[in-house]
Write the structure tokens for this entry.
Amino acid sequence: METYLRKRKVLMIPGPTEVSFSVLAAMSRPVMAHYGPEWTPIITETTDMLKKVFQTRNDVFIMPGSGTLSMEASVVSLFERGDKVLSIVSGFFGKRFRDLAFSHGAKVIEHRVTFGEPIEPDAVDRKLAQEKDVKAITVIHNETSSGTVAPIKQLGEVARKHDALLIVDSISSLGGVDLRTDEWNVDVNASASQKCIGVPPGLSLIAVGERAWESMKKRKSPIPGIYMNLSMWREAAKKAGSPVTTPSSLILGLRASLIEILEEGLENRFRRHALAGRAVREGVKAMGLQLFATKEEYASNTVTVIKTPRGIDDAKLREVMSERHGIMIGGGLGELEGKTFRIGHMANTASRTYIIPTISALESTLSGLGFKLEAGKAVAAVHKTFE
Amino acid sequence: METYLRKRKVLMIPGPTEVSFSVLAAMSRPVMAHYGPEWTPIITETTDMLKKVFQTRNDVFIMPGSGTLSMEASVVSLFERGDKVLSIVSGFFGKRFRDLAFSHGAKVIEHRVTFGEPIEPDAVDRKLAQEKDVKAITVIHNETSSGTVAPIKQLGEVARKHDALLIVDSISSLGGVDLRTDEWNVDVNASASQKCIGVPPGLSLIAVGERAWESMKKRKSPIPGIYMNLSMWREAAKKAGSPVTTPSSLILGLRASLIEILEEGLENRFRRHALAGRAVREGVKAMGLQLFATKEEYASNTVTVIKTPRGIDDAKLREVMSERHGIMIGGGLGELEGKTFRIGHMANTASRTYIIPTISALESTLSGLGFKLEAGKAVAAVHKTFE
């Protein structure tokens, strides 16, 4: 029954990712209650550290859930039937945000960007001028499906200009790519534990700014329910509490990871992820593969999306990577299934230790599947990038 | 920074509870992806074991969340605006179910039972006959705030008679008190990981039967959103998947606990909790304290709610228990705050090892606070019950 551990693969998928021993150790301690005098300093300290990572002085909540919860909680708490929402869609998760807004009754205007292409803030500006009365923009900071990054700073300026809220999904970027919640006018920043934060899945992380609270106060109908009701979370947090039972063991893991993140320093961490992203891209290009992102300056530093080369079966590629090399990489999502495959490099895996063997295994696998390449060239390119 | 562990208390609160070393060990293993060929046998095996604990052959889902999530997901998935729902309220959590149904647009009829009193199925029967067209009944199996148990079997018969769905919250009873989901006509059984299941908080567990699926199919409007949309969970589960990222580490902990639960055997486990409940009640009565439950045959076997004796400050009582004896017990909830205090005895703590020191500490604490009692009598009563 316990053989599964021997079969476990190294996670070079775009999350969940490999977590530190200190995180695992923290989670393996006896369970603590999620309230009371022993817990209060822990949750307070953890929330304060998380605020630094979110780069915000506003409210931050740690909810029991996945990244989708933080997206859906922002939709449920902010949007009422008929509210106009501009959803920027540049991949699978942009669609998810759009679908959530639509499903909860918003009047959704889709701003479609060809997957792999960068988002143009000017085009969003024009769309907002044309539509008028748009209450909020939803956008994915780091689109894990297409491997591209959104220009949040510029979108924040555009949102302010049109008096629209900016709701950002930073699930696969928080703690790995610079995202200045307050400075860049991000009103809600929705994230999760299992990517660049380096904690197992199970925690939904969300930052909510003053303009978002003001907007909630102006609602005509009350926010439905408890679980996703951000105003209840705010109320309970005033006494270091929560409206529902929170996952204390995972939060101890988060605390351990945040200590490491702040010890490393955000700037250093962003630099490390940038280097890791460049190294993977150099390796991929040296193999003769093509990035899915059309402009490398908008390519993600936490996940690289690669076009599946002609004649290669993407499922077979991933199977050999996993079975022969013990490394799990990701397949394409949604309409990119089969056409792309993905390598995650986030938190601990954004390092030479993980990337060199991954690129080496990819070279070997592709070569074995009949793809023509010059053996060792990609690994050399990665090595050189790290030197 | 790491001193908090020395300050950790033994959890004799009504959840979260003390978990087994095997659970902690499972959670401290390197993270696994929540999909793929390594994960599929694990989630399949875990779900199958969980079905046995739920005593169901129908669908069971493991969602990232707290107990409130499983309650709210059943409300969101089943109720449409104007649906008539009978909410049985015999404590704080019955109110929560009522509020969730109301908040999501149901027309809620409250069936109020004096807290501490048993629920009378005949009275529910009469209410249903009088109201007509009630779509569903919500009820808490084990009301953690008042320490009473609902007669689910009889309520299941009443629900069937009136063609109403029966939605049960078994958050603090699943795995500790007999609850035959299928046999007793429970259409949705909403639970969580951190009580009698013996896993840290963070997993919402839910069983959904055929009548509930049929009801969802007849909805006029689609179920809103993704996170709480049970039909999406069902669809994804067909391929051993989930609509959102699931907490793989906590699920490995759940798997470890379910192995232990099934090794112990459900019948043995229910008997152990029944004995633990009786032992605590005997101890409490021997101290001259009063149970909040008016009829002992309806008293909970997983949490004992005790009336705070006159002249005793409940907060002070809990503080001394915690600071001097290292044992955390619970305060009263909602309108019972101050008037009651609570001892949890669930999963591992439903045992002599945990109960004897708790009752000993309670004797000592109450005595120190000026409450007149005969020293050692309560501990002797507990000991005798276990012999």
